Amino acid sequence: MFVARLETLRRRLRNSEYSFMMLIAAAIGVLGGLGAILFRFLIEGVQYVAYGMQEYGLSLFDALEWWHIVLVPAVGGLLLAPIVHYFAREAKGHGVPEVMEAVALKQGVIRKRIVVAKTLASAICIGTGGSVGREGPIVQIGSAIGSTLGQILRVSRSKLRTMVGCGAAAGIAATFNAPLAGVLFSLEVILGDFGVRRFTPIVVSSVIATATSHYCVGDVLAFDITAEYTMVSFLELVPYSLLGAVAGLGGLAFSRLIYASEDLFERSRIPALAQPVLGGLLIGAIGLRYPHVFGVGYETIEMALNAEVAWTMLFLLLGVKMVATSITLGSGGSGGIFAPSLFLGAVLGGGLGHLYHQILPGLTAESGAYALVGMGAFVSATTHAPLTSIMIIFEMTNDYKIILPLMFACIIANALSSGLHRDSIYTMKLVRRGLNIHRGRDVNVLNSLKVETIISPDYLTIAEHTHLGAMLQLMIKHSNTYFYVIDEHGGFRGVVPVDDLRQVILDGEILDSLVIARDVMIEDVPLLYRSETLDQVMRYFGTSRWEELPVISGCGHRKLEGVATRQAVISSYNREILKRDAVSEVLGGISTAVEGEPVLFSGDIAIAEVEAPGWMVGRTLAQLNLRRKRGIQVLMINPLRDGQALADNLQLVPKPDYVIRLGDNILILGPSEAVRQMRS
After folding, report:
1. Pair 149, 350: CB distance under 8 Å
2. Vertex 96, ends 92 and 98: CA angle to 5°?
């Protein structure tokens, strides 16, 4: 009876889309706020076990033995490595790119296990001294909570993406006590959409998460600033602008250093499970001299804001923190880059502020003001989100007097950083995977397709000593546009365009015995490999006259395996677009009905989307024989395992030998009763 009433309530709420989304947004706000608070408590618990302190205090490290400081981060790496490697690979790194990818390319689907995996891995990494922040993990945790709730309620894909944005906003708002910054971060970074229909539920989640945080831990600012800073004169905008420019260059350098560190560890022969341990040892060694790099670094940030650190030390910490964070993330640690960006901005601004004030004491404010502005400028440079950067600094400090130089510095830092490199620290990670969410789905579709899918055996080869007369005879008999020249061992040598042969037809009798294929072939031809993406192939076609290109093996003798034509690339792209559009249209059209009961077409025939039940897992469609046993026709299979997007692995017409696996979603058609049994 209770289940029936709950189902009735759910249906009524769904009839009012606005009420439904507001209620769900509020629920995500509560869960995201509680998740952020519990995550902070978990970090403090790990810190207490590891160091005997709930919060990092620089003076407390003086009482620890050197081996204790060095070994604890390594033990943390040893504990988090199996969580990331075996349980959820998405928990590695700073987390936000994975959320952006899920929103842009995976319909908002985030695996449910991410909540647990990211919470444990990041808490261990930060709590044992990893030089990363807690904001990125909280964004990923909050987004995963929103996605999980949406998947449980089986909402449409559009609503699911909005719910992911609600979770991200809730995480930021609860962490920094900054509801407006949470909203802007979600819209500017995660969703890239300021539409009204997304804006309202995200605001609700952010406000509710902030209220939840206030209720549990009180209304406190992220940083305790004892001094009050103002802009001394309008001339001071010049040094602030210079700070923004330096922060722009520093943010870009920081982004590249992180991924250079990742490449270094990936190219090394160190086993994946041992890399976080080595990274922890290096961080521990750095922490012996500079314990400031441990954890989120909020104590050092406050010291810079209150002008309590010498400028020489601030500049030194700038380089040390960059290296420490790069090692932590490059070696496989789990944590965010938001707090390290704040740290780097604070020490950079504080250091420059000291120099400015010594040179122009009457025209410049204390160094703490520059540390405050530097925080926003550096975050703007790394994230390419100036609105979020401005608002989060304002809300964290509750100081409006410095807002004008803050805006100047953030805009300049973002303009310089994005001008030199269009990708932020988040999208840079996606581009390295072949995913460019800014260039639209065209490039992403072509990046998901390989040359091996379009190789054609329809080509004509000739020996390199073939005479002109023989080539002209082949030209008459065959319609091929190109002849591919090979040596006696079958290795590719070059291409003879048929159009080039037509130019010497009049002189054929004179040149027949003199000209051979090797004399007229073109050797400088773009060569393709089976594993190359069609995006790169299309670039070759776009910048040359070639209509087809040779596909060769990766071996030294360059064996010709086939050809890839411009038309084949276009046809493959069109098929993939059609397939993905079919998924979106079918799932979007039936989503509302499928979320409740199967869609009834005519008579007793129904359609529904179901998750593969346990009795189907591990068996092929031929073994299941659903059509004969149950009258069920499998229309599509959407593999969701390993966090892959629906359309990326979609099989519109699944083969009989396809093996059902845990997490597969199946679109079925058949008698309504049989469909209902499959759903239950």
Report:
1. no
2. 65
Quickly list H helices, 524-606: 534-542, 566-596
Q: Is the pLDDT of residue 401 over 80?
A: no
Beta strands in 334-463 (DSSP E): 460-463
Residues 22 and 59 in one domain: yes
Question: For residue 59, how many other CB atoms are within 10 A of its CB?
Answer: 8
Domain of 565, CATH number, reads 3.10.580.10
Confidence (pLDDT) at 233: 80
Please check whether residue 350 is in contact with residue 371, taking contact to mean a CB–CB distance below 8 angstroms.
Answer: yes
The amino acid present at 364, given as its one-letter code, is T
Whether 581 is in a domain gets the answer no
Residues 416 and 490 occupy one common structural domain: no
- Whether residues 114 and 242 share a domain: the answer is no
Q: Phi then psi for 294, rounded to 5 degrees?
A: -65, 135
* CB distance 124 to 116 below 8 Å: no
| 321 lies in the same domain as 188 | no
User: What values do phi and psi take at 669, rounded to 5?
Assistant: -135, 135
> What is the Cα–Cα distance from 243 to 352, expressed in whole angstroms?
7
The secondary structure of 497-546, three-state, reads EHHHHHCCCCCHHHHCCCCEHHHHCECCCCCECCCCEHHHHHHHHHCCCC
Residue 446 lies in a domain: no
Q: What pTM does this model have?
A: 0.68
Count of domains for the chain: 4
Nearest 5°: the CA angle 4, 10, 12 is: 105
What is the C-alpha separation between 211 and 216, in angstroms, rounded?
9
Contact present, 525 and 546 (Cβ < 8 Å) = yes
Give the CB-side neighbour count of residue 645, counting CA atoms within 13 A.
Answer: 22
Do residues 637 and 602 lie in contact, with contact meaning Cβ atoms separated by under 8 Å?
Answer: no
Mean pLDDT score, 620-644: 71
CATH code (residue 637): 3.30.70.1450
Q: Is residue 441 part of a domain?
A: no
pLDDT given for residue 258 in this prediction = 92
**Cα torsion angle, 526, 528, 532, 535, sign:** positive
Percent over 90 (pLDDT), the chain: 12
Write out the residue range of the structural domain in which residue 485 sits.
Answer: 451-570
Question: Within a domain: residue 580?
Answer: no
Residue carrying the six token digits 């420019």: 245
Digit-coded pLDDT (tens) for 87-108: 777 667 777 887 887 777 666 7
Confidence band of 171 (pLDDT split at 50, 70, 90) = confident
Identify whether the C-beta of residue 368 lies closer than 8 Å to the C-beta of residue 350.
Answer: yes
Tell which residue, 24, 97, 166, 57, has the closest CA to residue 437.
97
Higher pLDDT, 508 or 667: 667
Residue 45 backbone phi and psi in degrees, to 5: -65, -40
Give yes or no: residues 100 and 141 share one domain. Answer: yes
For residue 599, pLDDT over 80 is answered with no
Statement to judge: residues 212 and 244 lie in one domain: no
Based on the domain organization, do 455 and 425 belong to the same domain? no
Residue 246 has pLDDT above 80, yes or no: yes
Q: Do 419 and 456 belong to one domain?
A: no
Give the mean pLDDT of the chain: 79
- Res 352 pLDDT > 60: yes
What CATH code is carried by the domain that includes residue 25? 1.10.3080.10
